[in-house]
Amino acid sequence: MSDINERSYLLDNLKGLLIVFVVIGHFFDVWASKYFNIRFIYTFIYLFHMPCFIFISGYLTKDPEKSRGNAFENLLVPYIVMSVLWKTYCTIFSIVLHGYSSKLLTFSILNPAYGLWYLQALFIWRYFLKDILRIKYTLLVSILLSLLVGTVNEFGTVLSMSRVIVYLPFFLAGYYVRHKNYLPEILSISKKHAWIIVFITGCVAFLLSLQSNSLFRFLFYYNSYHLLGLNNVVGIITRAMTLFVGLMMTAALFKILPDKQTKLVAIGRNSMVVYIGHFYIAYYFHNMFYNLTEFNILLLGSFLIFITILFLSLDSISNIYNKFINNILNIIFIKRPIH
Amino acid sequence: MPKIWTWLVIMLTIVASVFSFLIYSGKYDKPASVYTLGDSVSYYKTEDNARKYMLAGWSRQEKGYTWTDGNEASMLFDVQNAGDKNLLLQIRAFAYLGGGLPCQTIDVHVNEIKTASWKITDEAWYEAEIPYTAVGDGLLKIKFVISDPTSPKDIGQSTDERKLGIAVKELIINVID
Which domain holds residue B1? Predict the structure, then answer.
């Protein structure tokens, strides 16, 4: 494979695999501090799945001007709509389950709920990419900022600012790989090396999950080092290492996944709906089965994850979502620009 | 080009080794301890379960309480399943009012956000609401900023050199709903 075209099987396979990891992570997250095996799976996934996803988002950003033009419609509006829907769902769920809820009272559009931060962050990256690219040594600067932002307590979840800054190097790296045509260099890694990287990443995940029941929180990238109980030097070293692991795993996955039709392609092509839809089932799972044993959580969780992904990756579900969002866009905008 | 990958894999191995070293040397030894909402944290010597949450600014446990020592005292909690919930922090405490202090003013900060200010005198329950925006993903760093920490030695009361502020007996964090 010399180049990746618009509808590449490799990219769809990557997106498919990564969205499966996103779903697994969210289904099991509330038990990560409680059970070792879940914590290990969770830590392993969180070491690379978002860095890789964001790298691909950067790679798929072809034209910064066009990206800015589309950002409101494709990202910000869906983010706002999905945030409102999510809060409404949680409120109704809470009332049905407990007879009360304060969920709507605590609604904040600036502070993304659950995993919806990615839409907000992607909006910011794509909207400001044109300006970011004008900064000299922008990739180097972004790496430095990514490491330093953890030294400041003020950068947290509001506007996803901490994550926007921490993950920016991956977004820019993806963008530059496409525009400077570096992909062949990435794909020059041998399969043997790629699998060694996966193995070492597994070892790192094992070490981190063995050490404590909450060190995996470091991989959320929105707490300052201080808040995580680390001094700044250890925090910066740790972040540099976890981001390096994420980068290496990104390269490894590009090599390991095939550039041909697989089951993951359909999931990858409908990854937006899988991403937006799975929160609702995961939330139900957390609330209804919180007190199960670890084995039962893994068993039932795996089954529900399978069903959820199978259902949400159907083309018909994506069509419904697209129609829904388009209707909302038609209501909001006087006349939709033609792209 | 493949040679670069060999070097990068070697670097990754070094990274894994550095992780092992940091873990072995205890650099990650102070992560937040898990706290279940509603549990009572006791600062008594006899049934102390507060030590694991304490960071800086606390004295040794005494028979029925633990004094803060200095201008600030902080604790770190890993509150499970706290997402999107407003919480209520309650502590049972009394103040050291040596030297004619009318009260100790305690500013309560949660994850660096000021959430309450208490005027503490006699033993009572004091409460602070913690908005969900301060809760974040459930990692709670609670810091008490004490207005007038006073050493009993400085006012000629005893030889105790500790800068006493408040004596905490019990702490509970709960959901407000």
Answer: 1-30
Contacts of A68 (CB under 8 A, 6+ apart): A126, A127, A129, A130
- Number of domains chain A contains: 1
**Any CB–CB contact under 8 A between A238 and chain B?**
yes
Per the domain annotation, does A301 fall within a domain? yes
Buried b (16+ CB within 10 A) or exposed e, A160-170: bbbbbbbbbbb
Minimal CA separation from A260 to chain B, in Å: 24
Same domain flag for B67 and B122:
yes
- Measured CA to CA, the distance from residue A114 to residue A136 in angstroms comes to 34
Q: Which residues in chain B are closer than 8 Å to A222, comparing Cβ atoms?
A: 136-137
Residue A1 domain flag = no
B11 plus B23 within the same structural domain: yes
* pLDDT tens series, chain A, 339 aa: 444 555 689 999 999 999 999 999 999 988 887 788 999 999 999 999 999 999 999 999 999 999 999 999 999 999 999 999 998 888 888 778 766 555 555 667 888 888 899 999 999 999 999 999 999 999 999 999 999 999 987 787 788 999 999 999 999 999 999 999 999 999 999 999 999 999 999 999 999 888 766 678 889 998 888 777 788 899 999 999 999 999 999 999 999 999 999 999 999 999 999 999 999 999 999 888 888 899 999 999 999 999 999 999 999 999 999 999 999 998 888 765 555
What does R_g of chain B's alpha carbons equal in angstroms? 21
Do the chains contact at A200 and B139, CB–CB below 8 Å?
Answer: no
One domain for residues B2 and B48: no
The single-letter code of the amino acid at A57 is S
Contacts of A109 (CB under 8 A, 6+ apart): A80, A83
User: What domain range is A145 assigned to?
Assistant: 9-332
d(CA B7, CA A235): 25
**Is A338 among the domain residues?**
no
Distance from CA of A192 to the nearest CA of B (A): 10
Position A337 in a domain: no
* Residues B56 and B105 placed together within one structural domain of the fold: yes
Nearest CA in chain B to A102: B177
B49 touches chain A (CB under 8 A): no
Chain A CB within 8 Å of residue B52 CB: no
ipTM over 0.95: no
Cβ contact, residue pair A286, B81, below 8 Å: yes
Number of domain units in chain B: 2
What is the spatial distance between Cα A106 and Cα B86, in angstroms, rounded to a whole number?
8
